[in-house]
Amino acid sequence: xxxKVRLDVFEGPFDLLVYLIESARMSIYDIKVSEIxxxxxxxxxxxxxxxxxxxxxxxxxxxxxxxxxxxMLLPRSTDPEANPEAEDPRTNLVARILEYxxxxxxxxxxREGEIANFRIYEKPQExxxxxxxxxxxxxxxxxxxxxNAFNLFLARKKKIEEIKxxxxxxxxxxxxxxxxxxxxxxxxxxxxxxxVPFSEIVQDKTDRYDIALSFSSMLEMIKQTKLTAEQKRIxxxxxxxxxxxxxxxxxxxxxxAEGGE
Amino acid sequence: xxxxxxxxGAFEAMMFTWGEPLDARTAGDVLNISEKxxxxxxxxxxxxxxxxxxxxxxxxxxxxxxxxTADENALYIERLCTPVRKRKLSQSALEVLAIVAYKQPVTxxxxxxxRGIKCDRVxxxxxxxxxxxxxxxxxxxxxxxxxxxxxxxxxxxGFSTLKELPDIEDIESLIEVPEEYEDAIMANQISLEExxxxxxxxxxxxxxxxxxxxxxxxxxxxGGDAEQPE
Amino acid sequence: xxxxxxxxGAFEAMMFTWGEPLDARTAGDVLNISEKxxxxxxxxxxxxxxxxxxxxxxxxxxxxxxxxTADENALYIERLCTPVRKRKLSQSALEVLAIVAYKQPVTxxxxxxxRGIKCDRVxxxxxxxxxxxxxxxxxxxxxxxxxxxxxxxxxxxGFSTLKELPDIEDIESLIEVPEEYEDAIMANQISLEExxxxxxxxxxxxxxxxxxxxxxxxxxxxGGDAEQPE
Lengths: 261, 230, 230
Fold this sequence. Notes:
The complex is a heterotrimer, with one copy of chain A (261 residues) and two copies of chain B (230 residues).
Chain A (H helix, E strand, L loop, with lengths): L12 H11 L9 H17 L6 H18 L17 H27 L11 H4 L3 E5 L2 H45 L7 E3 H4 L6 H16 L3 E5 L6 E5 L19
Antiparallel strand pairs in A: 2-4, 3-4
Helix pairs in contact in A: 1-4, 2-3, 6-8
Chain B lengths: L3 H15 L3 E2 H7 L4 H17 L4 E6 L2 E6 L4 H8 L2 E5 L2 H13 L2 E2 H8 L4 H9 L3 E6 L7 E5 L1 H7 L10 H9 L2 H11 L2 H5 L1 H8 L9 H6 L10
Antiparallel strand pairs in B: 1-3, 2-3, 5-7, 6-7
């Protein structure tokens, strides 16, 4: 047989093998391995003589063919142990050839579709530049976003309200601190040596403002050396005691109190 | 290829791919028919498209014919072809919009009183986007403009009426920030022991804007909040 | 704008203007109708054009629709305007494409196992032509890329959906005939071989990479230089 076909027209080793098998009018299910192997190898040799680069994949299949050929020479079926999975050494090769052929045929079907589709023409897009040059500004807005934004605003507004109220309270405190200090002074009136836990100074323990007011009043009185206070451990109870100045006149706020404690 | 149908089909395909007005003589040459015959077929085609009220029509210019879109579809083509650029409203625009939505009709002054900040430009932007509009004039001094939301505004949210906005009562009561709410927060946040903790007060003095120090706590510092960063 | 006629008219105008396949959802949005409704109208239109045997038809690619010429007019269009020459895909490209089309999502390794030869460059070329694309990653070792076909693939081969691919199981049964029909297979193979060898000597022998069109085939006179317009 004259193979006046160049190697590079074959899409791969299977393509060449299938070509050779079909050219030899051989059944894929009964490949004469010896014959096809020598044809395959001589084809590759011919190519190499013509200085055509033969890719390694072609050589891999050549090696496989030789391997199968040698196995074919062994007495089969008498020794199923040697190769129990594929009794016929060609089985795997046949399966791969069939798989390849299947897609080869599929590619031929695609080719038909390709050519038929070449007869169908599209038209280019019309000139739509007058539209594309002035994009629509579409507002992205959804109700969640709207509500979230508003809630954020409310939170900020609430904060502002708080600040306002705080300043109001500071004003109020300036008046009532005097009362609270008076109250503390009265606590020690009967017994100036007694020790009072801070919590007893607080009148309304559920009211944070009251707690804070009591605390600041106590601090103020310490500053005015009317009270002493000690705390045994951090976060522990503050124990308040009176000094000899306890009964001196209450001053609403001492002058150098600016920096707090 | 002799039937009128196939000749007209060929002309349709040719006009379609040609794009520009197709000269009847050129078209006729392709099919080996005279210019006159070609014009007759093309005129027939033109009438068919009109009679059937198709979305594309055939326009005749002298002896040339061209596929064009029917006038009545101009709007849809514009909608299709105009690219969409999505924009978001700024936080301030959303706020003003919310105030207008819930308090309408509302004057600019009232909005500014709620927000504590000028909003003339924001209002302008919202009006340009057709989200708010003038609803008349207030009887107050200077007869200021009253603003309200538009149908476009409703459309954005898919509402048919303003009543579908989330309940306004809840939101309004929140604006007032009731005291008991505040006290509840304080009760949660402070315990007796914490008062004595210096760390606590220090920490709060430098607290960022978001975390407002509690008034009670501040009071404990007896005026020490003068330098409080706000 | 509520009648079926006017909706279809709008779609005609939009498809005509758009040129490229027009997505049914996009088209539906313009008219405020659902994608499903849009598809129903567009399918109706498509049938109308076919039934009336118009020179232009509507081609469906998945959920997109496009005006194209009817294939019987190819000759006239070519006479009229010498359209851009079309270049066929190479045999190797087609084989890889066939494997991707039928086995998708598929890794390069799996394709190479079928063909017995490397195909990284072919795959690259197909991806560049947008005929295949990455569809994710396999869970296998090295997490190789999974390839699948694109809408361009469907358009290129004239399929509306992947379901229109000829049944590969039929092909399989065509090959895998039981032993007793071996003679018949052989006869079949002989004829296949004849076609194949002819093709190889005439057409493919001179085309190293991109295959030269077979003489006498439609749209093939073109030769092989011009890039396939896509």
